[in-house]
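quick one before i forget lol
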Amino acid sequence: MPVAHSGCSMTKYLENAWSEIEQVVARALAEDVGAGDVTTEALVPADLEASASILAKRDGVLAGMDVVKEVFRQVDPSLRVKALVKDGARVKKGQVVGKVRGRVASILKGERVALNFLQRMSGIAAETARYVEAVAGTKAVITDTRKTAPGLRVLDKYAVQVGGGRNHRMNLADGVLIKDNHLVALRSRSMTLEDAVRKARERVPRGLKVEVEVGSIEELEEALSAGADSIMLDNMKLEEMRRAVRLVRGRALVEASGGITLDNVRSVAETGVDLISVGALTHSTTALDISLELEL
């Protein structure tokens, strides 16, 4: 199963986003701990120390160990967290992927938040790797979308990278994507698709690419005539996709989107598209089952 960052736990992407990740972790802890862990505070001696193992309970791809370290650091800086497996590595059921040592009360306070991040991110990485493996040998690249969990986009998109995928737009400022509703609004003012592309180029920062979503060959031809840098084929059938690729002939990047599953992604890739965007990587992924077990 190919992965993007095997052997690399902290990519440049993660470093650049670290201040945002610290805030995400702080909000998650505030949400989960509330006014305090009343159960642990009532029952566990404050000076009791132990180790804990972080254990994979299913095969998959690991992502998020640096986030786990940040969770425990914010809970209690004296806790010692060691990653035994790096982000991007394949893990097996029963494998210990990390260790935590220190005050039991602190470990228990951070346990759920740390696992929530690690399970979600690893699930996204594993699912992305499955899609990447499915299109191996074609030129198609698997990308994500903006269909991420609100507030967790920086982590969701990092996990896609770990799984071997590529990030599409991080946010609305990252590029122009003219979609059907934009055109509905513009056509109410008698503007054509060509007008929309020209207006976008005049008004957005220099260097930003202009992508146009199309649902038919006729719209594709209009987008090509307008000079779009990239064309998104929205929910097209395979034969339409093949025809679209032939018509484009390398004049623009071609992206397939809508209705992509593991069952059909190989067939989509074989049409010759350059990119395949898959919302399911982040909007409906299955978390990788991971647990934390105390060892006294």
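fyi The first helix runs from residue 12 to 16.
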